[in-house]
Specification:
Helices cover 37% and strands 20% of the residues. With 474 residues, it is of the alpha/beta class. It binds cytidine-5'-triphosphate.
Length: 474
Amino acid sequence: MGSITIRQLDDDLKHRLRLRAARHGRSMEDEARTILRDAASEETAPAARQPAAARRPTPQPQSPRPTETADHLKRVLLIVGGGIAAYKSLDLIRRLQERGVAVRCVLTGAARHFITTLSAGALAGERVFTDLFDADTEFDVGHIRLARETDLVLVAPATADLMAKMATGAADDLASAVLLATARPVLIAPAMNPRMWSHPATRRNLATLLEDGVIVVGPNAGEMAEQGEAGLGRMAEPLEIVAAALPVLSAHPGKLLAGKSVLVTSGPTHESIDPVRYIANRSSGKQGHAIAAAAAQAGAEVTLVSGPVALPDPPGVNTVKVETAQEMLAAVNQSLPVDVGIFAAAVADWRVEKAGTNKMKKQAGRPPKLALSENPDILATVAHRTRGRPALVIGFAAETERITEHAKAKLARKGCDWIVANDVSESTGVMGGDSNAVHLITKDGVESWPPQSKQEVARALVRRIANALAETGR
Ligand code: CTP
């Protein structure tokens, strides 16, 4: 049997169906079903000529008020997990609707211990879905359609159990089956006891989910529902979740930074001693280049000012190649103004005061003494600009000890907004390696991200930047 969807109807028919559905207090799908049922019963029982109103089936209690499902309206499928934070998800429905987002809800079995389908359905204005093997649901919508007919799947609260199911691809209930079936962006707002959050199993699951491209908001630190317990594990507040969801909804998938300009510095600098020798460091430029590539993929106009590296130029990026710190500063100044400046280069702190124009000759038993002078601090120079300062200035901190403590001091000293701090001790293999475990330091505190590839760090940073710009309306 062929299938027909409301989207396939012509505009005029859709318009008339919408008005009729609104008049009867039903969703458009319920209205279409009612019309078909009426028509079918007329066919099978032509003698039973009753007024249409008498033949109309009892209105579905799941549709307490009409939901506008115009094509332009953004839709969120909200999966509510079983946790005390589920009550905040009711508020989240409202906060999303206030911003013109239609919300359809799936409640897990555990969630129904905390909130009811009635309260979620009343707020959403749509029936609430709960069971994988529900004859009505499967006939009517089904988990594949739930997974498809949305612009974003939002899991709030995302319990440790739901995260574990998502990470392993389990699909033994409606929520997990939808999450496995969806190709839409997925945003989760974890909420659990701090010990569960810090357990290695949850850390592993989180790393897998980030690797899979799942977007994470929170959790926040604070008091737990359990008496006397505090720590990291409280679900992000509804407005924080909304702030994380809106850029995903408003942009084309993957175009979170459309219309924004981004400057990235990357790689080491080489400071000449003479025409054949130079001072350098072990930076490969992999992290900075990955950030430039991720920002370009997200639709930004990107300028990458790169020191000498053995990497290809990222596609879609304007790459400016420099050697020294002074050249890097000049190239950076040239590319301003920008919306966001990300300073990932490992700039040499010193240069040789007087680099030789000829090769220095070795003199037996008399090694040369190199007089050094300080290089300009590019990050601090840009962050302290009074005119033409990027709206968001992000530095990096390469540390080998007391990582977050030193990085916090750098944030204050250099005047930037965020610092991405990493441990570059030899044992971590970060310098030149492909993975990175970073701490994001902002004025609000420290977030420790799980170890992940440099590409994933780049994508996560791009998402954070998009959220920050959206929150401040920039
Ligand atoms: N940075 C810069 N210009 C410099 C030195 C550093 O723009 N001359 C930037 C880096 O790109 C990075 C941040 O400053 O974003 C911190 O760099 P890092 O090497 O960690 O710190 P330093 O300032 O060199 O301090 P220290 O050597 O004491 O760790």
